From TrEMBL:
Native organism: Parvularcula maris
A Pfam family this chain is assigned to: DUF6324
InterPro entries: DUF6324 (IPR046287)
Protein name: DUF6324 family protein
């Protein structure tokens, strides 16, 4: 499966700080239960990638 492959999978997404100073992205659904922990610097890099992807998606929609 790639970025452009449609899917009907549904999952909940939670993002927050852990009590150990990490940033957790948590995916939970019928087919997935995945906690992903990142140090703050990596989390900021992921946030930048998300912003860049959102900007690119906006250009495709126009």
């Amino acid at each position: 499966m790639g970025l452009n492959t449609p899917t009907d999978i549904e999952a909940d997404l939670q993002v927050g700080a852990t009590d150990s100073g990490m940033v957790r992205i948590y995916l939970n659904g019928p087919e997935v239960d995945l906690p992903l922990d990142f140090d703050p610097e990596d989390a900021e890099a992921i946030a930048e990638e998300l912003r860049a992807a959102a900007a690119a998606a906006r250009k495709v929609r126009k």
